[in-house]
Design goal:
295 residues, alpha+beta, eight-stranded antiparallel beta sheet, 2 helices
Length: 295
């Protein structure tokens, strides 16, 4: 008597393959989401540790949780030094460029806009992603100036929404800025106008997710850039002099606007000292231990 063997039909095999594909996709999405959350949590601990360790060196801190004023010029408050930075935009996008302070918070968005907490890192944050080049500016008397040889650290959370070059911290005018160039390399332009580009690119900065960017100048000719608590690049500079006055600045000359920050920003801190690599490594390990302890 001939034995009859059962086998899967082609349709049954296709159904199994489809089910496996769906399950694999769900697992990958779940894993990716968990990795993103872990990275974000680690960076938050890193930022808090820097602030706690360098509290005596903290010069200015913007949380971007609120906007003050009932009429222009509106402002946002530096909670550490209690300095107000005014919200502006360029009222003309053709040469010659002019600045206006008559901000609008409905209809056409002219000034940086407050976002809800669910969109931000801590509390609320600001959206600079508008075509009229909004920015924030401190009064001249309140600007922070670092001379060549001074040590400093500038740290902020940013979410980039463009593939173009962005100058997101610095001064309005031809001189200095901290920037991310169009090739994703980091760029430092000192207070004398000399431009230095990092030798290493970072493609992950443009993924439309939040990243903690920390710049540290040790005063001995080196600038270190940390992304999400990890050292991303180091480059040598002959002059690390820097003046902080603007956030989201874009003005480069009387006839040209370029490099405007198109994205979100939260929790900006400025210190008059540099974090050391040795301490960064220790902080990274302590942060991981802290996360494990919380779990």
């Amino acid at each position: 008597m001939m034995t009859k063997h059962k086998s899967f039909t082609l349709i049954e095999l296709l159904v199994v393959i489809v089910i496996i594909g769906i399950l694999s996709g769900i697992i990958m999405i779940s894993t990716s989401s968990s990795i993103d959350k872990a990275s974000l949590a680690k960076s938050k601990v890193f930022s808090e540790n820097i602030r706690n360790r360098m509290l005596l060196n903290l010069k200015m801190e913007f949380q971007f949780d609120s906007i003050q004023g009932t009429s222009a010029p509106y402002s946002t408050n530096d909670r550490w030094g209690n300095k107000n930075a005014n919200l502006y935009y360029y009222s003309s996008i053709v040469s010659p460029f002019t600045i206006a302070n008559s901000c609008s918070f409905s209809g056409t968005y002219f000034c940086p806009q407050l976002l809800e907490e669910k969109e931000c890192i801590k509390g609320r944050c600001l959206n600079f992603n508008f075509g009229n080049h909004p920015f924030i500016e401190l009064p001249s008397a309140d600007q922070i100036e670092f001379d060549n040889g001074d040590s400093w650290t500038i740290s902020s959370w940013i979410k980039l929404l463009t593939s173009s070059s962005v100058n997101y911290i610095g001064t309005r005018g031809t001189s200095n800025h901290l920037a991310i160039a169009s090739d994703n390399s980091f760029q430092f332009r000192n207070s004398s106008g000399t431009i230095y580009n990092s030798p290493i690119s970072s493609t992950k900065i443009r993924d439309k997710k939040w990243h903690l960017i920390t710049w540290a100048a040790n005063g001995n000719g080196n600038i270190f850039v940390y992304v999400d608590s990890m050292l991303e690049t180091t480059f040598a500079v002959e002059n690390n002099g820097f003046i902080f006055r603007n956030i989201g600045q874009s003005y480069t000359s009387s006839t040209s606007i370029s490099g405007h920050f198109l994205g979100y920003m939260d929790e900006l801190q400025i210190y008059n000292a540099a974090v050391s690599q040795a301490w960064i490594k220790k902080t990274y390990i302590d942060g991981l231990n802290s996360l494990h302890a919380k779990k």
